[in-house]
């Protein structure tokens, strides 16, 4: 694995270096016309550039120059060129460590205007004209007043004055190097048309969590290393259409200190897709993440992608989503839109069944193994428990599809959606120990639990089944608060029951809330959730027929956003269980953030949040972006 | 006969307009001319935002800003491109002309979702800078009262000194704003912000401006919070006017591209 990782990163490094070669000035052309002289710089790719104007000084004539960053000169080009022209006397080039300067020596106090075009090769055109001609053309990129009178205002007392010295040239090729005075601001015309850009991005993150209660059988430590590297290529096909290609890889290594847990290292293709954009529609195919729904942290409509549940809700909803293969079409009208998604292949969520604080069966297996009163044959039995997952095969019948209709008024957004897909959490169709009545307590009384148990040699069977979700969402602003929410009807949701298999029931889930940001930068988010299980049966674990909860966030950035305090909360009113996540995040250093926090669960053992009560932990997360 | 009458009427009109032109501008007219100052039908700009602490620590961000004006509204989109931790964050503001009705949307790439955000909290800091959301918008002229406190020359540019005071009911965190407005281009070169107690707490200064494509353009501005000593500097690196930006660039779906 390590060798393949190194090979992959080396490949990426070589790829990026290959993409990032310095531009080359391939040639300079000039055309002398009656009213102007046009000088064209031909460069093999788009470059960043500045230009400026210098008045005559000493023996030096009036000059215009253009600095081409990260550019070198074609070696066959002369360093200077005498020009037979009424406005120009000479064109010179000079190399600096980070740029190439092209200087136009002017015959008179004419002015220059500079534009670039997205043609291939990239071209920068310098027009040398008399001031009178310029006034009629109204180009005005260079000052219309004398350079000495250019609008350069004095700094206020106490303001930061920038005097950036010019770097010395690496090679003196002509007296272009004497053009170091750069009065006033330098501006170049902006060229976004004809965009053909490649950019690389990525991040690396380390996460470590320690249980505050290290008694019992739970794993007391969790470590996770993640890295993601991607490349985006954006190309304009015309004034109203463009292509985007994104490719990203993901490295994810998670480690629990539980004796039975496996260390897992995944090296996968992350978001990788090709997208075509036009004015009113777009189409994309590949591995993608799609976020539907308006509410935060708990979004019943957000069912398109599978999720990574290996840390339960201790990581944010958006970070749990896993990209999956799909063909996505979006059409946008003036105030309405329509979106379709076709998912040709099923992708399952990442779930632990045993041997983690956050597994479906929590640490039930390890609690039996660690129990000194449990007989050895029982310990051997549970040690050999295994799980078999039955996931849909790759066939036409197993495709998923979704559609969403959106409409927008001046102050409100609405959407109706429907998803014919697969459940995110699988249905447990078989548990090898029969005739038990489990209460949900992660550390149960074994004598009572197994008094009438029948032990079989079967496996835990997890089967993904069809699920349909219909939803409605809204978002508006009721000054000074934001108001948003969503309601979903889900035809079948799998719930763990007292015999440790699943029962499937229809569910209605409403999440709606408000948020408010004060002028002192306090942020409040309060949402209410109502989760209703139709045709409720009493053997369902952790949920009542109606579950009502309050969830949200309070946060406050201080020190100009360099430090942020946050408290995420989730309080289930109906069973009085809760989850609190206080954290503080340091963002002082560029492209680096460090978060320290805690995950605190409380409540009775037979409640969803309370069943994690023994899993309280403190954590530290560091993330570097590039 | 008609020809002579026409010449006479034209001469009278010219005389009248000349005398009108000689009339000094009223404070409200100066405010209106500043509000209506032509800044291009559209604009695209690449710039930097530097957050400078009192101790001199500088945090720099790069952004692309697009703006388009039509008769009904001003549309503005700001997309941060660097550093990497905020790359892809986009603000979209749709500001109705002549009123304080503003619609704002925020796209955070980590959330993969565009959120409608409350625009009425104008006193909030814009991305932790010394600019507030209010500072990023134009004041509707009729919501303020104006007084002219003479003229002053700044770096060779004659400026009106215009004092603006919000009318009762106007949503503003400021009690008074004094602006030095350059006479030729109606561009504010310096502005002092006062709180409701009359304390001068912020200063805005145009460090440089250029006439680009015949439009007076601030190319480096500085906002200083006098209470904390913190400063924010905005620099223009590249700019282009009137390139025919499409309306589709200023939609929520465009934020996600």
Structure description:
The complex is a heterodimer of chains A (about 625) and B (about 260). Chain A is mainly beta and about 625 residues long. Chain A is about 10% helix and about 50% strand. Chain A has an 18-stranded antiparallel β-barrel. Chain A has a 5-stranded mixed β-sheet with strand order 5-1-2-10-9. The N terminus of chain A is likely disordered. Chain B has about 260 residues and is mainly β. Chain B is about 15% helix and about 45% strand. Chain B has a 13-stranded antiparallel β-sheet with strand order 6-5-4-3-2-1-13-12-11-10-9-8-7. About 5% of the residues of chain B have low confidence. Classes of the chains: A mainly beta (about 625), B mainly beta (about 260). Chains A and B meet through β11, β27 and β28 of A and β1, β6, β11, β12 and β13 of B. β11 of chain A pairs parallel with β13 of chain B.
List keywords for this structure.
heterodimer, A: 626 residues, mainly beta, Immunoglobulin-like, 18-stranded antiparallel barrel, 5-stranded mixed sheet, B: 257 residues, outer membrane lipoprotein receptor (LolB), chain A, 13-stranded antiparallel sheet, 13 strands, globular
Radius of gyration of chain A: 32 Å
Helix content of chain A: under 10%
Total domains of chain B: 1
Count up the helices of chain A. Answer: 6
Beta-strand content of chain B:
over 45%
CATH topology of chain B: outer membrane lipoprotein receptor (LolB), chain A
Unreliable spans of chain B are 12-21
Note the overall shape of chain B. globular
The gyration radius over C-alpha positions of chain B equals 21 Å
Are there runs of chain A of 5+ residues with pLDDT below 50, and where? 1-20, 134-189
Task: List the quaternary state of the chains.
Answer: heterodimer
CATH 2nd-level architecture of the domain at 24-149 and 163-178 in chain A: Sandwich
The third-level CATH topology of the domain at 24-149 and 163-178 in chain A is Immunoglobulin-like
Largest sheet of chain A: 18 strands, antiparallel, barrel
């Amino acid at each position: 694995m390590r060798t393949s990782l190194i090979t992959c990163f080396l490949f990426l490094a070589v790829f990026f270096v290959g993409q990032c070669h310095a531009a080359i000035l391939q040639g300079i052309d000039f055309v002398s016309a009656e009213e102007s002289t046009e000088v064209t710089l031909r460069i093999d790719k788009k470059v960043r550039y500045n230009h400026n104007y210098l008045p005559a000084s000493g023996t030096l004539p009036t000059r215009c120059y253009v600095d081409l960053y990260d550019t070198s000169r074609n070696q066959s080009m002369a360093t200077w060129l005498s020009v037979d022209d009424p406005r120009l006397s000479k064109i010179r080039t000079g190399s600096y460590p980070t740029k190439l300067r092209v200087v136009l020596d002017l015959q008179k106090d004419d002015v220059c205007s500079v534009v670039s075009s997205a043609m291939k090769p990239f071209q920068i055109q310098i027009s040398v004209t008399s001031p009178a001609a310029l006034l009629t053309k109204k180009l005005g990129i260079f000052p219309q007043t004398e350079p000495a009178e250019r609008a350069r205002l004095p700094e206020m007392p106490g303001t930061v004055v920038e005097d950036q010295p010019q770097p010395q040239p690496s090679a003196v090729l002509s007296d272009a190097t004497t053009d170091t005075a750069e009065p006033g601001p330098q501006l170049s015309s902006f060229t976004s048309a004809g965009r053909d850009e490649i950019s690389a991005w990525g991040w690396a993150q380390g996460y470590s969590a320690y249980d505050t209660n290290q008694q019992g059988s739970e794993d007391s430590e969790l470590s996770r290393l993640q890295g993601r590297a991607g490349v985006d290529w954006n190309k304009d096909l015309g004034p109203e259409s463009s292509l985007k290609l994104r490719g990203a890889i993901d490295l994810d290594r998670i480690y629990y200190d539980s004796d039975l847990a496996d260390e897992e290292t995944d090296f996968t293709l992350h978001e990788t897709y090709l997208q075509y954009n036009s004015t009113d529609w777009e189409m994309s195919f590949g591995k993608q993440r799609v976020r539907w729904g308006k509410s935060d942290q708990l979004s019943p409509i957000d069912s398109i992608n599978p999720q990574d549940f290996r840390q339960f809700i201790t990581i944010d909803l958006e970070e749990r989503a896993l990209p999956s293969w799909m063909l996505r079409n979006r059409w946008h009208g003036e105030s309405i839109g329509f979106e379709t998604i076709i998912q040709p292949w099923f992708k399952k969520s990442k779930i632990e069944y045993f041997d983690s604080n956050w597994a479906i069966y929590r640490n039930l297996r390890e609690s039996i193994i660690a129990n000194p009163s449990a007989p050895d044959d029982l310990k051997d039995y549970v040690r050999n428990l295994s799980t078999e997952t039955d996931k849909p095969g790759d066939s036409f019948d197993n495709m998923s599809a979704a559609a969403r209709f959106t409409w927008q008024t001046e102050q409100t957004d609405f959407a109706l959606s429907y998803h014919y897909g697969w459940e995110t959490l699988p249905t447990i169709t078989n548990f090898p120990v029969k005739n038990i009545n489990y209460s949900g307590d992660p550390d149960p009384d074994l004598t009572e639990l197994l008094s009438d148990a029948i032990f079989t040699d079967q496996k835990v069977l997890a089967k993904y089944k069809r699920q349909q979700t219909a939803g409605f969402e809204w978002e508006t602003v009721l000054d000074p608060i934001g108001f948003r929410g969503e309601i979903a009807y889900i035809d079948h949701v799998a719930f763990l029951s007292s015999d440790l298999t699943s029962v499937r029931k229809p569910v209605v889930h409403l999440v709606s809330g408000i948020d408010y940001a004060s002028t002192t930068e306090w942020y409040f988010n309060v949402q209410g959730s109502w989760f209703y299980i139709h045709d409720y049966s009493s053997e369902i674990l952790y949920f009542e027929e109606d579950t009502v909860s309050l969830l949200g966030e309070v946060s406050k950035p201080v020190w100009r956003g360099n430090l942020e305090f946050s408290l995420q909360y989730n309080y289930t009113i109906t069973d009085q269980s809760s989850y609190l996540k206080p954290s503080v995040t340091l963002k002082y250093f560029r492209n680096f953030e460090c978060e320290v926090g805690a995950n605190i669960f409380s409540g009775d053992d037979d409640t969803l949040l309370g069943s994690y009560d023994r899993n309280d932990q403190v954590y530290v997360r560091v993330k570097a972006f590039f | 006969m008609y020809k002579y009458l026409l010449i006479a009427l034209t001469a009278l009109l010219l005389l009248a307009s000349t005398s009108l032109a000689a009339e000094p501008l009223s404070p409200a007219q100066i405010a209106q001319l500043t509000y209506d100052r032509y800044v291009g039908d559209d604009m695209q700009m690449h710039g930097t935002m530097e957050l400078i602490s009192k101790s001199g620590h500088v945090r720099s961000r790069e952004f692309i800003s697009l703006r388009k004006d039509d008769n009904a509204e001003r549309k503005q989109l700001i997309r941060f491109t660097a550093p990497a931790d905020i790359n892809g964050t986009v603000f979209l503001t749709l500001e109705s002309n002549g009123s304080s009705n503003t619609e704002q949307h925020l796209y955070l790439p980590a959330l993969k979702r565009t959120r409608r955000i409350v625009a009425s909290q104008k006193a909030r800091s814009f991305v932790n800078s010394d600019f507030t959301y209010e500072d990023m918008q134009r004041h509707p002229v009729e919501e303020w009262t104006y007084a002219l406190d003479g003229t002053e020359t700044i770096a060779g540019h004659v400026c009106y000194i215009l004092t603006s005071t919000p009318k009762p009911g106007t949503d503003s965190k400021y009690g008074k704003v004094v602006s030095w407005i350059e006479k030729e281009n109606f561009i504010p070169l310096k502005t002092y912000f006062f709180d409701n107690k009359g304390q001068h707490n912020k200063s805005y200064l145009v460090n440089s401006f250029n006439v680009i494509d015949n439009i007076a353009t601030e190319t480096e501005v500085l906002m200083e919070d006098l209470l904390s000593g913190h400063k924010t500097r905005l620099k223009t690196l590249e700019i282009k006017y009137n390139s025919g930006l499409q309306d589709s660039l200023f939609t929520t779906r465009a934020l996600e591209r």
